[in-house]
Write a structure and sequence with these properties.
9-stranded antiparallel beta sheet; mainly beta; 9 strands
C-alpha cells in the first residue's frame, strides 16, 4: 500500500495505491471433492481531493476517483464411482474458471451544517464494472468391465462471457443531535440507476 497526500490551507489532495495477492484453499470435508481459489488478487489506484470550509453552513467537500482490477481463479475437481456388477463407471470432472473484473468509479460528497445540532450529507456515486469470464470444463468417463480394456472417454467444453454494469446513485443522510448523549441519524434516502450490457 502507498499513500501520498499534500495539504495546503483547507485543501487536501492525494493518491492511494493498494495491491493484494491472495489465494485460498476451501475445505469441503469430502475426499472426492476439492475447491480452490489459487488466485484472488486485487489492485486499486485512486486519487482524492478534500476541502474543509470555515463557512457556517457548508462544511466539507470530498471527491475521489478510482480504478480497480480483481483477478480470480477458481478450480473444482469432482470424482465419482458407480458400481453395477459386473461393470463400474468412474467419472472425473475438472472445472477451471478465470475472472477479471475491472471497475472505474467516482464518488463525491457535500457536508452541510444547517444548524448547531443538524448535519446533512449529500452524495453522488458512479461506477462501471467490466467482467470477463472464461470457463473450462473437462470430463473423463471410464467404463470398467471384466476382460475389456478400460479406456477413458474425454470431453471438454469452453465458454467465454463478458458483461458491463453501470451504476449511478445519489444519497442523503441527515443527523440530528438531540442532546449531548443522543444523536439520531436518518440515512434511508438513496436512489440507484443500473444499466447492464
Amino acid at each position: 500500500m502507498l499513500y501520498l497526500a499534500k495539504e495546503v490551507d483547507d485543501h487536501l489532495i492525494g493518491v492511494n495505491y493498494e495491491n493484494y495477492e491472495l489465494s485460498s484453499e476451501i475445505a469441503t470435508g469430502m475426499p472426492n471433492f476439492s475447491l480452490n481459489m489459487p488466485q484472488r488478487d486485487r489492485e486499486k489506484f485512486s486519487v482524492f481531493y478534500q476541502y474543509d470550509s470555515d463557512n457556517n453552513y457548508f462544511k466539507k467537500f470530498n471527491l475521489n476517483a478510482y480504478s480497480q482490477t480483481v483477478d480470480r481463479n477458481f478450480t473444482q475437481n469432482i470424482s465419482t464411482s458407480v458400481t453395477q456388477p459386473p461393470m463400474s463407471i468412474e467419472v472425473i470432472v475438472d472445472t477451471n474458471i478465470q475472472e477479471q473484473l475491472d471497475t472505474m468509479g467516482i464518488n463525491s460528497q457535500l457536508d452541510f451544517s444547517l444548524s448547531d445540532n443538524h448535519y446533512t450529507i449529500l452524495g453522488m456515486q458512479f461506477a462501471e464494472d467490466d467482467l470477463n469470464k472464461a470457463t473450462d470444463n473437462s470430463t473423463s468417463k471410464t467404463i470398467i468391465m471384466p476382460n475389456m480394456p478400460a479406456t477413458p472417454v474425454l470431453t471438454s467444453n469452453n465458454s467465454v462471457e463478458a458483461a458491463t454494469l453501470k451504476t449511478k446513485a445519489v444519497y442523503i443522510q441527515d443527523e440530528w443531535r438531540v442532546s449531548d448523549k443522543l444523536i439520531v441519524t436518518a440515512g434511508g434516502a438513496r436512489h440507484y440507476w443500473l444499466m447492464q450490457t
